[in-house]
Design a protein that fits this description.
The complex is a heterodimer of chains A (about 220) and B (about 240). By secondary structure, chain A is mainly α. Helix content of chain A is about 80%, strand content about 0%. Chain A has a domain at about 45-135. Chain A has 9 helices and no strands. Chain B is mainly alpha-helical and about 240 residues long. Chain B folds into 2 domains: about 5-135, no CATH class; about 160-245, no CATH class. Helix content of chain B is about 85%, strand content about 0%. Chain B has helices at about 5, 10-40, 45-75, 80-85, 90-105, 115, 120-130, 135-160, 165-195, 195-220, 230-245. Chain B is globular, with a radius of gyration of 22 Å. Classes of the chains: A mainly alpha (about 220), B mainly alpha (about 240).
Chain lengths: ~220, ~240
């Protein structure tokens, strides 16, 4: 509709996102101090600094790269929500992609921004609802969910997710897919320690896939 | 009061509940705003509703997996802290790694939580877990607007310049990269460690997904499009139980 002012909507999404995420992170950082007051406990400054150093060595670069990669994919609303609610690679990102495929929108368009925000928002709510119900039923549910017979199902959630998505995306263009997939297989077989480093390798393999795409696109070989 | 009773005390539940309520409100505000904007923009209500349904359906299974993470962590951090940590920021692998790193930094371990951890350990661990993963949120607050606009401009510029967008292909490529990384690691796991279950599960999910695509495109079973990802995952995960059995 011609009366709709997307610029105004976009500004309001950024304003809402900034306010909500600022309050959210401040509340989350303050919570351990409230816990301390309630429990009569004390935060160990040296334990905190040493722990933070150990965690940050790995996760600070990952957080920065994730920000750079995910924001263009998730759009403004989807990004603010995804970063505060977490579980991006295993849930929010595939969910946004799934919604985009179904709605038939293209990244960077106003319609896509609406679709990704809706997808991530609904996904976040459903997750919180499932966990809430689960926490209420935690005691009776624990033996069922922890049943060794069912463990392989939940242990293989990511293979099921990426198997299904892989079938969808690899077939869009084998020209793009072949080298990154083969490279990952060869690298991981040559250096088995890399099998457990998928988060870091994702950046490398994703970068290579984009470089290949650029090459074929320049040559006009992608349809 | 022993450690686990403290870690599961009502006061902690109330504080965690308050923060989660805030996050729920935040989600509702975003959903309402974008849904209304979609309508004003002239988007089909059916498309918007389908997005909501498909996203909700897709999320259920991974959420159960996250719930398992809450259960796993609750043995050492208590239910409220685990509930919070897995409902906001981060993910299961991060939370487990960060909690163990923070414990080790204080000379204790999550493995013997009930006997070795104290409430002071708990609050320090939670602070480390939160701070260590907060950089992405902080980046969205300070750079989200400018970076989002710049990247959108680049996406749209490439569309105008190239006719058929490089940006759209780049998005596909990025996801191919993600899928390739995981599928590649499952193939290597099978070759190196003879662990065949992950790659078999992935293959089953892939075959079901292609089957669903066939039904949607060739047999005009359009309704199936919303379920195809969830259905593929569900059948593949159920198959994993039978293969492992």
């Amino acid at each position: 509709m011609s009366t709709f002012d997307y610029e105004r909507y976009d500004n309001s999404i950024h304003r809402l996102g900034r306010i909500m995420n600022a309050i959210g992170i401040l509340a989350l950082l303050a919570l351990p101090f409230f816990f301390s007051a309630a429990l009569g406990a004390t935060i160990s400054p040296s334990g905190f600094l040493k722990g933070l150093l150990r965690v940050s060595i790995t996760y600070l670069p990952i957080c920065i790269v994730e920000f750079l990669i995910y924001v263009p994919i998730l759009g403004p609303g989807g990004s603010y929500l995804s970063f505060i609610t977490g579980n991006i690679i295993n849930m929010k990102l595939p969910c946004a992609y799934n919604a985009r495929e179904i709605a038939g929108t293209q990244a960077g368009t106003p319609e896509d921004s609406i679709i990704t925000t809706l997808a991530v928002g609904v996904s976040s709510l459903v997750t919180m609802l499932v966990i809430f119900i689960g926490v209420l039923a935690l005691i009776p549910l624990t033996p069922v969910l922890n049943n060794p017979t069912l463990r392989p199902a939940f242990d293989n959630l990511l293979p099921a997710l990426f198997g299904a998505l892989g079938a969808q995306y690899f077939f869009k263009s084998w020209k793009i897919s072949a080298i990154p997939l083969l490279l990952m297989i060869v690298l991981s077989i040559a250096i088995p320690a890399l099998i457990a480093q998928t988060t870091m390798l994702m950046i490398l393999i994703g970068g290579i896939a984009i470089a290949i795409t650029y090459y074929f696109h320049k040559k006009g070989a992608l349809q | 009061m022993d450690y686990l009773s403290q870690a599961n005390s009502k006061a902690l539940y109330l504080m965690v509940g308050a923060i989660l309520l805030f996050v729920v409100i935040s989600c509702i505000l975003f959903i309402r705003k974008s849904y209304r904007a979609g309508i004003q923009m002239g988007m089909d209500r059916k498309v918007l509703r389908t997005t909501i349904t498909a996203s909700a359906l897709f999320t259920i299974l991974p959420s159960v997996s996250i719930l398992l993470g809450v259960i796993a962590l609750s043995g050492s951090l208590g239910v409220p802290s685990s509930w919070l940590r897995l409902s906001v920021v981060g993910n299961l692998s991060y939370e487990a790694i960060a909690a163990e790193a923070a414990s080790q930094a204080m000379g204790v371990s999550l493995k013997d939580a009930a006997t070795t951890l104290t409430a002071s350990h708990l609050v320090t661990i939670i602070l480390v877990m939160t701070t260590g993963i907060s950089w992405g949120i902080i980046a969205t607050i300070f750079f989200g607007k400018s970076y989002s606009r710049k990247s959108t401009q680049m996406l749209n510029k490439s569309k105008k310049r190239d006719g058929k967008s490089f940006a759209d292909w780049a998005m596909v490529a990025m996801f191919i990269g993600f899928c390739g990384t995981f599928i590649g690691s499952y193939v290597a796991e099978a070759v190196v460690f003879k662990h065949f279950l992950p790659i078999l599960t992935a293959l089953i999910a892939g075959v079901i997904m292609k089957g669903c695509e066939y039904l949607v495109k060739e047999k005009q079973m359009v309704w199936m499009e919303n379920f195809s990802l969830s259905l593929s995952m569900l059948i593949a995960m159920a198959s994993a139980v039978f293969i492992a059995y």
